[in-house]
């Protein structure tokens, strides 16, 4: 899954060179005649014009953050710049840290509060609010991109903060720049699928207590497979044809197993009897992504990647 997959598949225009600088089809280059010009159906983001875009958006951004521009972007993707890159197991802290970085950048621009529909307050079983999904796009066992995706759309006034967010910091693990790589609406390709078979790209962690107390018998409907099935159906997805569990995630660095993932960060923690695993899910018909399920799903745990090719 490379940066090009988000733009080229399905009619977009963005692909990333080895250095991360995007290239475009000439007919799809950005026009800066108005802020709305960057909201294209499948989305492109010209990093070389980033500062001009930011200035344009700041002039035209809506003051009401709860009102998205339609058809506005649903996704924004960054490339991590810095060495060494964080390991795949740092998905959860990186997802959380990326959100914190963006919220700080928004606050410095006077955005005191984002709409509930964006950050997930309120009752919405569809999970249409924001997912912050770190990716190992080249399969080397290290996280190299972060995808922000909200089915409900990104607030227009947030775009300048997304374009110039500042560094993301993970304490002793390091600090990286977030380099804009793609922006747009859902289109087939990369983590968006669609696909029948979806395979773990990060560990799935059970979000509910399996027992009434640690060490007791697992309650009906609370095994890891049953919890995963409940997560799938609660998202409005069809019941899968099968769920299998894999030993880990293959990478160029070797198999990444359950001990490689950070699950507890600060005050955030799963139920006391949580289990961790690596599912492969097969549906009867193709379903859309991105898919992330279970505890920590909005910050990178439980991420699934299309796997129809094998």
Helical residue percent band: 10-25%
Spatial gap, N to C terminus: 15 Å
Shape, please?
globular
The main β sheet shows up as: 6 strands, antiparallel
Number of helices: 6
Give me the Rg, rounded. 19 Å
Oligomeric state as shown: single chain
Task: Describe what this molecule looks like in 3D.
The protein is of the alpha+beta class and 310 residues long. The protein has two domains: 4-190, no CATH class; 193-306. The chain has six helices and 13 strands. The chain has helices at 4-7, 50-60, 91-108, 116-119, 159-163, 224-234, and strands spanning 15-16, 22-23, 75-81, 131-135, 145-149, 168-169, 175-184, 195-200, 204-205, 242-246, 276-287, 291-292, 303-306. The strands form three sheets. Strands 8, 9, 10, 11, 12 and 13 form a six-stranded antiparallel beta sheet that branches. Strand 6 and strand 7 (175-184) form a beta hairpin. The protein is globular and about 50 Å long.
Map the helices and strands:
Elements: H1 4-7, E1 15-16, E2 22-23, H2 50-60, E3 75-81, H3 91-108, H4 116-119, E4 131-135, E5 145-149, H5 159-163, E6 168-169, E7 175-184, E8 195-200, E9 204-205, H6 224-234, E10 242-246, E11 276-287, E12 291-292, E13 303-306
Antiparallel strand pairs: 1-2, 3-5, 3-7, 4-5, 6-7, 8-11, 8-13, 9-11, 10-11, 12-13
């Amino acid at each position: 899954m490379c940066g090009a997959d988000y733009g080229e598949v399905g009619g977009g225009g963005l692909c990333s060179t080895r250095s991360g600088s995007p290239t475009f089809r000439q007919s799809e280059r950005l026009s800066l005649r108005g802020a709305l010009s960057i909201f294209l159906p499948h989305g492109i983001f010209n990093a070389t014009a980033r500062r001009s875009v930011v200035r344009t958006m700041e002039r035209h951004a809506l003051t009401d953050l709860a009102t998205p521009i339609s058809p506005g972007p649903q996704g924004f993707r960054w490339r991590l710049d810095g060495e060494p890159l964080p390991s795949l197991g740092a998905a959860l802290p990186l997802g959380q840290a990326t959100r914190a970085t963006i919220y700080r950048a928004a606050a410095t621009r006077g955005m005191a509060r984002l709409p509930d529909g964006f950050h997930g307050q309120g009752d919405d079983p569809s999970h249409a609010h924001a997912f912050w999904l770190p990716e190992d796009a080249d399969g080397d066992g290290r996280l190299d991109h972060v995808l922000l995706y909200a089915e409900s759309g990104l607030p227009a006034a947030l775009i300048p903060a997304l374009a110039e967010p500042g560094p993301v910091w993970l304490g002793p693990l390091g600090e990286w720049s977030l380099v804009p790589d793609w922006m747009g609406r859902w289109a087939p390709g990369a983590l968006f699928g669609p696909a029948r078979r979806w395979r773990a790209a990060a560990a799935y962690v059970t979000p509910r207590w399996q027992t009434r107390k640690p060490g007791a018998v697992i309650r009906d409907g609370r095994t890891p497979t049953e919890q995963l099935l409940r997560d799938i159906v609660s998202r409005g997805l069809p019941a899968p044809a099968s769920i299998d569990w894999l030993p880990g995630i293959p990478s160029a660095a070797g198999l990444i197993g359950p001990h490689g993932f950070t699950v507890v960060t600060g005050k955030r923690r799963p139920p006391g009897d949580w289990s961790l695993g690596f599912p492969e899910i097969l549906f009867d018909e193709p379903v859309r992504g991105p898919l992330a399920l279970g505890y920590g799903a909005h910050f990178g745990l439980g991420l699934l990647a299309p796997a129809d090719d094998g």
